[in-house]
Amino acid sequence: MTQASVLPPKTRARPADDHSEGMSYLQNVPRRIVTLWIPLLIICFVLLFPFYWMALTAVKPDEQLLDLNRYNPFWTWNPTLKHIEKLLFETQYPRWLWNTMYVAMGATTLSIISSVFAAYAIVRLRYKGAQWVGGLIFMAYLVPPSILFIPLSTVVFQYGLFDSPMALILTYPTILIPFSTWLLMGYFKTIPFELEECALIDGASRWQILTKIVLPLAIPGLISAFIFCFTLCWNEFIYALTFLSSTQHKTVPVAIVNEFVDGDIYRWGSLMAGALAGSLPLVVLYAFFVEHYVSAMTGAVKE
Amino acid sequence: MSDDAMVARIKPARRETTSWERLKANRNWLGFWFMVPAMAFLILFLAYPLILGVWLSFTDARIGRPGVFVGIENYEWLAGDTNFWLVVFNTLFYTLVASVVKFAVGLYLALLLNERMPFKAMIRAVVLIPFIVPTVLSAIAFWWIYDSQFSIVSWSLRNLGLIEGNINFLGDTWNARWSVIFANVWRGIPFIAITLLAGLQTVSPSLYEAATIDGANSWQRFRYITYPLLTPIIAVVMTFSVLFTFTDFQLIWVLTRGGPVNATHLMATLSYQRAILGGNLGEGAAISTAMIPFLFAAIMISWFGLQRRKWQQGEDN
Q1: CATH class of B73-313
Q2: In chain A, how many domains are there?
Q3: Are B141 and A142 inside 8 Å of each other by CB?
Q4: Could you tell me if A221 and A115 are in contact, meaning their C-beta atoms sit under 8 angstroms apart?
Q5: Using the beta-carbon criterion (under 8 Å), do B129 and A283 form an inter-chain contact?
Q6: Are A247 and B96 contacting, i.e. CB atoms less than 8 angstroms apart?
Q7: A109 vs B: CB within 8 A
Q8: Nearest 5°: phi and psi at B65?
Q9: Are residues A150 and A259 in the same domain?
Q10: A132-180: per-residue pLDDT in tens?
């Protein structure tokens, strides 16, 4: 404040969208509150409110849910675990959670293994046409599941995979491989070529180079690719909706949409509890690996 | 290597080993085998279905019946179907509005997050949460927020005295359109903001300092420094954003299933409804195939965006 009053008005009229220490003296506190903190608070509030609402609904007693006038809707003083209990013991929710986990782990593992080989071959073996193949894989990234699910459903049927988790474990890699290959290509490029040359001169085979030199150095990239693929699998909906039909094989997103909505009586409490329980594993994973998520997201875009 | 040295001393086995060794060292041969797993997946479950989808769109296949070639009958039928054209309009409107808003708010948020401030890492982590949570599950939360009777938004506005009755978010044609667009924007902002932020962080602060000394105001700094340096990454991010908004399925399916009176049906949801629920695979495939030209346009934009980036950075890969 004091600083601001010393400065001539013209200088004060320059807000800064920079982050340099050198120029921050051009700003004052009230100005920062208006241009930075208030918009940021509003955006964060809008981004987070649905989750607060989800969590609150999951623990509110039923009568408070449907009577907004007698009880303050934004808070509850007597939370209940009834909805969560119902979810765990009266539905097949644990089973669906397990299905989702199983499919996500299977598809992610397959994709990462395939991508490591493909990325290494494109970046380091540089076989004839590697550039082209890299470009084609990028193109595959741009083919969305929404235009593939109809023909894929007939393919899945032909291969006899319909209504089995294998249908998802084998089709999800088409979404994951292009992404993780591009991400890993970026990581492999940063590993100095000299390391590999040294190993080659010392007589290491390509396999030894890959497992003993390249992979240990690319561990951050592998973690990024792994958790990002895992999140994508968890998020996938249209394939799971199309290829699975029996209740006990469903994944969480499909089961919540199809099994929880009966007629017109929406079971909001348990629906929200289900949505919350389905999000928590990812949010916990995210909390531990924030930096990896960010580098996965930005890395794949930058490459 | 010690094994090889041993082998080298044993004369008769030598010739055979060397040709095998030579093959093992051949990059094309090795490269081929390294590519096999990824290519198997992509060919079997991506390239083949893509071609099969185009073929299906020229047949009258139904679920459980292969179908025969009928030429462009499916497309002719779609061209005369007013519902289909309504859906095309919905899809374009949804994509255009959602992408523009997402870009504007996402860029604004990225600029805000790029400032020096306390708890920066934490705020950035919080902003990304909508992107982490599965779309279907957050859409369910939106469904509850948009409930016609117990909507918290209606309740708050009513108690503030801004509206008289409850807003019928998903029951009215235009309300439903704006509601799904809002949910899509909500879900898409974090991705755009965080990727653009990564781009912003690579811009050297000394450029801004120099411009400020030369008397540039904040708009000029944005227009002549930030924007040009960010263009390549904007091109890529927006390509992805447009692509995935255009082919959106989950959000619509959870919130409205295309209703009311097809006002929020997108091409993806319509093709699901006709192909899987209606059993009319050929017609559904024709709707999916009709999306390809739009996607191709998006890919071309991305391609030129990437070219421009290479040109700017002088890379030669």
Answers
A1: mainly alpha
A2: 2
A3: no
A4: no
A5: yes
A6: no
A7: no
A8: -140, 125
A9: yes
A10: 888 888 888 888 899 999 999 988 888 888 888 999 999 999 999 998 9
